[in-house]
Amino acid sequence: MFEHRGLAAAQVSVTGSGFSSDQDRQEDRLHRGLRSSSEGLGLTFLMDVAAVFDQAEELLLSKQRDYGPDNIAKSPFGPVFGLLVRLYDKQARAGNLIGKDQQANDESLEDTFLDMLNYSAIALLVLRGQWPGLKGTGLDSR
User: Which of 48, 59, 73, 85 is the most exposed place for a label (fewest CB within 10 A)?
Assistant: First the structure.
């Protein structure tokens, strides 16, 4: 399976990733992240998967800069419950858009699923005690 290592495995400056194109970035990830279980899946599929994770990562980092960690870490009923509520809201929105078979006014169905992917990634970081600002919540491992 393709292992997405993101920024932890790449040298990234404040101004950019150091890669000349999205394709260079995806190919670098593929060279670093291919596992034997990815055999037979096809390079196109693997690159498409890498592109989705790249897009999600860029969105997550952008939102993190805007919101900071406290909106998750200091959620009124705890970070995990807060994330479950956000995920439910996104799921309900997706169901509503699909059920009505209409275009969204503000956030597309694709945007909704990217948000769900990122909330799931944040939830894993919270559960692992790796989300910033968890100190004193009982979820911090650092």
Answer: 48
Nearest C-alpha neighbor of 58 from the set 84, 25, 88, 28 = 25
Classify burial at 97, counting beta carbons within 10 Å of its beta carbon; exposed 0-12, middle 13-18, buried 19 or more.
middle
**pLDDT tens digits, one per residue of 19-73:** 567 677 666 666 666 666 777 888 899 999 999 999 999 999 999 999 999 999 9
Following CA atoms 11, 16, 20, 22 in sequence, which dihedral angle do they give, to the nearest 10 degrees? 90
What letter represents residue 129's amino acid? G
Within its chain, how far is the Cα of 99 from the centroid? 25
- Give the span between the Cα atoms of 109 and 104, in whole angstroms: 7
Whether the Cβ atoms of residue 54 and residue 5 lie closer than 8 Å to each other? no
User: What's the DSSP call for residue 38?
Assistant: G
And the tokens for 102?
């209409």
Q: What pLDDT is recorded for position 103?
A: 74
Residue in this structure with the two tokens 């860029």, named with its chain if needed: 58
